[in-house]
Amino acid sequence: MAGAAVLLITLVASAAASRDTPPRKIAVVGAGIGGSAAAHFLQQLFGPRVQIDVYEKGTVGGRLATITVNKQQYESGGASFNSFSLHMQDFVKLLGLKQRREVAGKSAIFGGEQLILEETDWYLLNLFRVWWHYGISFLRLQMWVEEVMEKFMRIYKYQAHGYAFSGVEELLYSVGEYTFINMTQRSVAECLLEVGVTQRFIDEVITALLRASYGQSATMAAFAGAMSLAGIQGNLWAVEGGNKLVCSGLLKLTKANVIHARVTSVALHNTEGRALYQVWYEKEDKMHSDFYDIVVIATPLYVGSNSNITFDGFQPPFEEFVGSFQSTVTSLVHGYLNSSYFGFPDPKLFPFASILSTDAPNLFFCALDNICPVNISATFRRKQPQEAAIWRVLSPQPLERPQLKSLFRSYYSVQTAQWQAYPQYGSRMATPLFALHDQLFYLNALEWVASSVEISAVAAKNVALLAYNRWYQDLDKIDQKDLIHKIKTEL
């Protein structure tokens, strides 16, 4: 106890030192892409001398994870990125990783009884089919998504100039003004109907795309939906060897101290100059704690979550984090697809590598696809439908045996990963804050309006810049209005 008291006195004295002094220690809770990227950005900003401890109770990578089948690894969490993922592209280059090549395959949409839209090998024929079924709805969708993404991409310029935001609403307003804020309270269907997209296109195509990405329908919030639909605008890619390599690579590059333990609480200790935080954690059934100048929470906080982190000594106390998450089950099935279920009695004639589904009442899965391992050789070819292959099935609930027998003629193995993957994006409470206290930050606040690997990286950089600007009292870099004009004048 005497040693802990001496340590606390020393840290308090350090915290009250000159404002030019960098932080001594930073804690990041969570080693998924958000936490790993935050550690990287914090080290970039504060320099190599700051000690960064990253707490992770599970496996580094979080929702970027793989499952091994027949000595090959397959993505079971975040599977791919699109051309808008600028931070992820930077990480891959920085770490000397490679983008995994895409193995071509056709898709179709299943309505519960029959396929309602089928992709062909001919681009012009695909366009004609979409136009024949839905008119110019696809073009109007593209224009809507492009307009949203053009505005959202401003965040990269703001971050390059060192600007940060203390709350999600402030960030959204800076890139899209009230349009983006309103999109968090309105549904995808509402917004698309306004721009001339037909209800049929929404029910059959938009819903299938959203179910494949978020497991939710077109009644979900429009901003999250637009971020998801942006994936159809560009080429998808993944990391050779597994997407989780980005997380482990960033932590290694940062020389972060990874502590495999469960954080139970964060306690505030008042100091004369700055706040000081005591992080309590459980490791090997024993409780430990350490003191930090800055703490970043990079794991979901909501009632019923697995985090169960309490916050002690804060006045007023934090309100409970209210919300609910969408449960998504990834099942990797090694077996023979039952193509008859989709209207193809002869499996040799089944041409599709992926099937998306509408929200028809009798459908128990959101999407399934014939997936490739994380390492692909030059001679790799996708298995034909009549061959045993690895199929990834996304569903809201674990697949029961009769459901598996519906989708597969026979199978050798089934391995599952169950995720609390995304918030449920209905109309919800006011957008949360990144800044919970002076130097206590909640990175996952941004996923309450949209969620993806790239969104987590954007949030990570925002939190790192926010911590840096607050530490050195550069308040002109926080929550500034009209940044487009400010940046133009700076240049």
Question: Could you outline the blueprint of secondary structure elements for this entry?
Answer:
Layout: H1 2-15, E1 25-29, H2 33-46, E2 51-55, E3 66-69, E4 72-75, H3 86-94, E5 99-100, E6 106-110, E7 115-118, H4 123-134, H5 137-152, H6 154-160, H7 168-183, H8 188-194, H9 199-213, H10 222-229, E8 238-239, H11 245-254, E9 257-259, E10 262-269, E11 276-283, E12 286-292, E13 294-297, E14 310-312, E15 325-337, E16 352-357, E17 367-370, E18 389-395, H12 401-407, E19 408-423, E20 435-437, E21 440-442, H13 453-471, H14 483-490
Helix pairs in contact: 2-11, 2-13, 5-10, 8-10
3D architecture notes:
Pfam families: NAD_binding_8, Prenylcys_lyase. The protein is an alpha/beta fold and 491 residues long. Helices cover 33% and strands 24% of the residues. A seven-stranded mixed β-sheet has the order 7-6-16-17-18-15-19. A six-stranded mixed β-sheet has the order 9-2-1-13-21-20, covered by helices on one side. A four-stranded mixed β-sheet has the order 12-11-10-14. The radius of gyration is 24 Å and the shape is globular.
Write a brief caption for the model.
The chain is α/β, with parallel strands linked by helices. It has 14 helices and 21 strands. Helix 2 (33-46) runs parallel beside helix 11, helix 5 crosses helix 10 (222-229) and helix 8 packs across helix 10.
List keywords for this structure.
491 residues; alpha/beta; 7-stranded mixed sheet; 6-stranded mixed sheet; 33% helix; globular; oxidoreductase
**Estimated share of beta-strand residues:** 15-25%
Overall strand count:
21
User: Could you give the distance between the termini?
Assistant: 55 Å
Shape: globular
Strand order of the largest sheet: 7-6-16-17-18-15-19
The averaged pLDDT comes out at 90
What is the assembly state of the chains in this entry?
Answer: single chain
- Helical residue percent band: 25-40%
Structural class: alpha/beta
Please report the number of helical segments.
14
